[in-house]
Amino acid sequence: MPHIVKSTILNAPTDAVWSVLRDFNGHDRWHPAVATSSIERAQSADKIGCVRRFKLKDGSELREQLLALSDLEQTFSYCLLDTPIPMFNYVAHVRLLPVTDGDRTFWHWESRFTTKPEDRDRISHMVAEDIYQAGFEAIRRHLKEAA
């Protein structure tokens, strides 16, 4: 079972980063892979159990469900319900922590999932680099443009 762990330091206060990340339906405004996103059944994007349906720029459609969200701890967890990508049982956790030396943010993003043995390396690289690392870089740009 692949276990992907990525983290970074952002030169922005934790509250500023959290205001962007906590919007479970907002990733189409900052992640370069996401073209459009909507929450099913007109639920609130911070309601535990809500499902976001989104399209990637390549036309693929995915569905993810919000499992946990804590404003106090600045964390959220979600799982993948439907995807054309050959991975299963995907559960991810995002956590922000303040870096008090300079009012910065430590962003931890991790997941576990299963996939076929022959797809393990390719899918692991895709999650780590095309999703997580690309997300880190995109948030940096997004926060800089918003400042």
Task: Please explain how this structure is put together.
With 147 residues, this protein is an alpha+beta fold. It has one domain: Alpha-D-Glucose-1,6-Bisphosphate, Chain A, domain 4. Helices cover 24% and strands 43% of the residues. It contains two helices and seven strands; from the N terminus they run E-H-E-E-E-E-E-E-H. A hairpin with a 4-residue loop joins strand 5 (75-82) and strand 6 (87-99). It is globular. It comes from Bradyrhizobium centrolobii. This is Polyketide cyclase.
Q: Structural class, from helix and strand content?
A: alpha+beta
CATH class: Alpha Beta
Distance between the termini: 40 Å
* Total DSSP helices: 2
Shape: globular
Low-confidence parts lasting 5 or more residues at pLDDT below 50? none
Helical content class: 10-25%
Strand runs, count: 7
Largest sheet, described in full?
7 strands, antiparallel
Q: Work out the count of structural domains.
A: 1
Strand order of the largest sheet: 1-7-6-5-4-3-2
Rg calculated over all Cα atoms = 15 Å
Main attributes?
Alpha-D-Glucose-1,6-Bisphosphate, Chain A, domain 4, 7 strands, 43% strand, 7-stranded antiparallel beta sheet
Topology:
Elements: E1 3-10, H1 14-21, E2 34-39, E3 51-56, E4 61-70, E5 75-82, E6 87-99, E7 104-115, H2 120-146
Antiparallel strand pairs: 1-7, 2-3, 3-4, 4-5, 5-6, 6-7
